Amino acid sequence: MSVGHAPGGAADRSRQGWLVRLMRGLVRAVLGVDLDEVEAEVDKGRAALSRESTAREGLRQHLEQRLDDVSAVVEDVRGAYLVTRSEFEQVRDKAVPELTARVDLLGESGAAAQPGVEPPHDGRLAYIEQTLTVLRKTSEALQNEVESLRDGRVPHVEGDLLKMQRAVEAVQALSGELRDQRMPALSARADALVERLHEELSALGGLVERLAQGEPLRVAVERDVEAEVPAAIAAASTRFAESFRGQRAEILGRVAEYLPLLAGAAPVLDLGCGRGELLEVLRDAGVEARGVDTDPAMVAACRRLGLAADVGDAQDVLRARKAGSLGGVTAIHVFEHLTAAAWMSVVEAASAALRSGGVLLVECPNPESLRVGAGLFWVDPTHRLPVHPQALAFVMRSLGLEVVETRLLRPFPPDQALASPSQPEPVRELAGRLDAWLSAPRDFLVLARKP
Question: What's residue 302's pLDDT?
Fold first, then answer.
């Protein structure tokens, strides 16, 4: 059958089918391309579009996830961008021109066909052009998306990396300062302190074991360090206390915080009463109290204020008291002037002198603050050894007392802290940890009660 003439007397539907076959034959004869293959290509284009849409969403999620990892995100985003850009350029520079060329060939072949085939031919071309338009727009949208990520997010990430680099440099500078300037002096102090503490370990171990077994302590009489202080310094003991232990008004404010703990503890014996600040606060509150101190000048200063005070040794005075005759015993900055055996003996004697419900209140410098334990503690030449709050609490419990509270007192001023709100967060966190180690509060309080 000739391809140029329709069979005579055919029905309309047969004619329409014949025209379609004729158009397919012309396209195949002229272009060597089957329309079924074109349709298949279009279907492939649709599938590719769907895959590209899915890939775009996956790429977005991947980029968002990778951006959280600041240290590696820049290289990942750049690599993803370059790969995706290359794929888009291949689609734009190769696939789209090929499809466009095929459509152009179809247009040229359609123009040479008979008028009867133009309506379905024009509809098919319009559909193909519409599909290609969608593909072009999708490709452009994807390319714009990647360029937006490149131009917007990558600079932001690079800025974050720069901030992190500056923070690391600040931490390194702070570490260098601590290593080269502050730590050597503190380390030397700490080494000296550890060496002195080590000398006490063997004796202390035996004492603790005896305490745990309930044996009474027999403390050998030792030289009174404060009694051997040069006469010129001893004569100026009041000025010494004001210079190194604080002005009287300042101490009055501190010890006033103890009044609620001692309000129902009369009579109170204040060991190492010094200038009588606690005695004065208790007297003004109507709480019976008496002080004892080894320094006659301090006792005389108390008596001038009308306060009850005697010259004597804390252990001797406590052992001379009738068992259960005291409601409260206080030792404010006393134990650091004694050996470990001596202050343990004082705790033992105080426990015996207290009545049931009586309280023992002890305040000492805080050795857990390195500024105190390695520095400020040694400003007072009459200090012997620091007392650790946990060791003190253990001895109190071993002697039958109940530890009610351990409290840290008198923190350093905030302006002396290493940490600052203006520092980057990593630096501020490191400085805060150093502050907790170096500049913990100056003093501690342990309060115990006799059952």
Answer: 95
Average pLDDT over the chain, rounded to whole? 77
Can you give the C-alpha Rg of the chain in angstroms? 46
Which CATH number is 216-449 given? Answer: 3.40.50.150
CB 271 within 8 A of CB 292: yes
* Residue extents of the structural domains in the chain: 12-173, 216-449
What does the pLDDT read at residue 430?
87
Q: Distance (Å, rounded) from C-alpha 155 to C-alpha 151?
A: 7
Nearest CA to 401 out of 348, 328, 340, 336 is that of 348
| Beta carbons of 307 and 281 less than 8 angstroms apart | no
Closest C-alpha to 128, from 112, 108, 106: 106
d(CA 121, CA 126): 9
Say how far apart CA 118 and CA 109 lie, in whole Å.
11
Tokens of 269: 């014996």
What pLDDT score does 327 carry?
97
Maximum separation of any 2 CA atoms in the chain, in Å: 145
Identify the bridge partners of residue 333 per DSSP, sorted by sequence position: none
pLDDT digits (tens, 9 = 90+) for 53-103: 676 666 666 656 655 654 555 566 566 656 666 665 665 667 656 666 665
Nearest-angstrom CA–CA distance, 254 and 221: 33
Tokens standing for residue 295: 């320094």
Paired sense of beta strands 354-365 and 309-311, if any: unpaired
Q: Taken in order 13, 15, 19, 22, is the CA torsion positive or negative?
A: positive
Can you give 212-228 as a three-state secondary structure string? HCCCCCCCCCCCCCHHH
Single out the residue of 283, 284, 282, 303 nearest to residue 292, CA to CA.
303
Which is nearest to 132 in space by CA: 42, 265, 7?
Answer: 42
For 95-174, strand residue ranges (E) read none
In whole angstroms, give the CA distance from residue 417 to residue 233.
34
In sign, the C-alpha dihedral spanning 341, 346, 352, 357 is negative
Tally of CA atoms within 13 A in the half-sphere of 283 that contains its CB: 16
Q: Please tell me the total number of residues recorded for the chain in this structure.
A: 451
β-strand partners of 360: 329, 448
The Cα–Cα gap between 94 and 100 comes to 10
